[in-house]
């Protein structure tokens, strides 16, 4: 007789087997989930490390990217990924937040390449290393010389800059007296971005002038009895005449002494202002040319500056040396011989200039 399992016992056995199989499958799912989690725990750091270690490309892709003030980090990262500068917007966001840079990115125009690592890209945006061209105004340069320099560096056209520099609306905005910004563009180095136009650059230059003048010269101007415009005009003459900075107070003393006596200033650079750049000499034709600026023909300061003076020239205009000098003549080394009498001056002209120029007196 064959043994048989009672129906009840068979059912219990099948249930046990099912439970065993379910438990096994459940354990396999748990194990798979754990394995997957483990792989993710390993893969994500590796992916992040790879993201930081290697740039998105070989450097052949260069993009100018402009970010507005207050633009969300996620949008910035998306723009960088779209321009193929970073390989992952999400990882860039993670990196920025881990570095505490979220909210510290500075708005502006940046130049990036796909050969830059994310760390370098983030650093530039935190420190604000925006894409700019540096432009320097030499001391004493006139607006015409500045315009030519801008054109030579392919920043702006000469005509466009002069148009902005003589724009009545801009002059009124800046509070500049006269028919141009001549004299009020402080000689310094400026950042020029792609979005800037000529007026924006002029505003930056004039703002720097106002800052320096406001900090250093307002009280001295009040004590001098001159207006700011007169001070800047005189300083521009001093700047053009003084090759050696140490002589500025002496040249200033000559101009102050002549003005006090009602003498013409007879400053060579004024004779060619608006005609050509002053190169150190003038001709008889220059001296006889009728312009509002020619101090060989007018008995006063010119109506406005003939260049953009430095801080040192403005200081010299306000604090001239105490001398009895009424004349000076340039020597071959760039310095000047100063004289108190016309006879002494004429002798100096014969000594130092000979036939190099007209012999006109300062």
- Helices, by number, come to 15
Lateral arrangement of strands in the main beta sheet: 1-2
Instruction: Average the pLDDT over all residues and give the rounded result.
Output: 87
Distance between the termini: 145 Å
What share of the residues does DSSP label as strand, in percent? 5-15%
Order of helices and strands: HEHHEHEHHHEHHHHHHHEEH
Number of strands: 6
Question: What secondary-structure arrangement, pairings included, does this model have?
Answer:
Layout: H1 7-53, E1 62-67, H2 73-82, H3 89-98, E2 108-113, H4 118-127, E3 133-136, H5 143-152, H6 158-165, H7 168-174, E4 189-192, H8 198-216, H9 218-224, H10 228-241, H11 248-260, H12 268-272, H13 284-287, H14 311-318, E5 327-330, E6 336-339, H15 342-352
Antiparallel strand pairs: 1-2, 3-4, 5-6
Task: Tell me about this structure.
This protein has helices at residues 7-53, 73-82, 89-98, 118-127, 143-152, 158-165, 168-174, 198-216, 218-224, 228-241, 248-260, 268-272, 284-287, 311-318, 342-352; strands at 62-67, 108-113, 133-136, 189-192, 327-330, 336-339. It is mainly α. It has a two-stranded antiparallel sheet with strand order 1-2. Strand 5 (327-330) and strand 6 (336-339) form a beta hairpin. It is elongated, with a radius of gyration of 37 Å. The protein starts with 6 loop residues before the first helix and ends in a 10-residue tail after the last helix. Residues 355-361 have low confidence and may be disordered.
């Amino acid at each position: 007789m064959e043994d048989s399992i009672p129906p009840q016992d068979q059912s219990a056995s099948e249930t046990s087997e099912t439970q065993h199989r379910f438990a096994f499958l459940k354990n396999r799912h748990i194990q798979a989930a754990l394995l997957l989690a483990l792989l993710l725990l390993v893969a994500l750091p590796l992916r992040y490390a790879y993201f930081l270690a290697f740039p998105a490309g070989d450097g052949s892709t260069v993009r100018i990217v402009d970010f507005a003030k207050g633009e969300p980090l996620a949008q910035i990262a998306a723009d960088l990924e779209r321009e193929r500068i970073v390989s992952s917007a999400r990882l860039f966001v993670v990196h920025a937040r881990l570095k505490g840079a979220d909210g510290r990115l500075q708005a502006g125009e940046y130049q990036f390449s796909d050969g830059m690592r994310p760390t370098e890209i983030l650093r530039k945006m935190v420190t604000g290393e925006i894409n700019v061209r540096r432009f320097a105004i030499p001391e004493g340069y006139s607006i015409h010389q500045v315009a030519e320099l801008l054109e030579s560096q392919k920043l702006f056209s000469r005509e466009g800059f002069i148009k902005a520099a003589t724009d009545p609306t801009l002059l009124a905005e800046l509070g500049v007296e006269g028919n141009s910004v001549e004299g009020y563009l402080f000689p310094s180095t400026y950042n020029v971005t792609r979005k800037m136009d000529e007026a924006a650059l002029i505003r930056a230059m004039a703002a720097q002038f106002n800052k320096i003048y406001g900090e250093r010269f307002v009280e001295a101007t009040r004590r001098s009895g001159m207006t700011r415009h007169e001070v800047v005009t005189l300083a521009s003459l001093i700047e053009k005449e003084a090759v050696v900075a140490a002589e500025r107070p002496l040249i200033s003393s000559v101009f102050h002494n002549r003005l006090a006596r009602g003498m013409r200033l007879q400053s060579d650079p004024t004779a060619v202002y608006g005609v050509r750049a002053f190169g150190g000499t003038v001709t008889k034709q220059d001296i006889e040319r009728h312009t509002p600026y020619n101090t060989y023909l007018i008995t006063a300061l010119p109506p406005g500056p003939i260049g953009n003076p430095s801080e040192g020239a403005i200081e010299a205009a306000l604090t001239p040396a105490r001398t009895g000098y009424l004349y000076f003549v340039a020597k071959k080394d760039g310095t000047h011989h100063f004289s108190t009498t016309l006879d002494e001056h004429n002798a100096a002209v014969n000594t130092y200039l000979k036939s190099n120029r007209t012999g006109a007196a300062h």
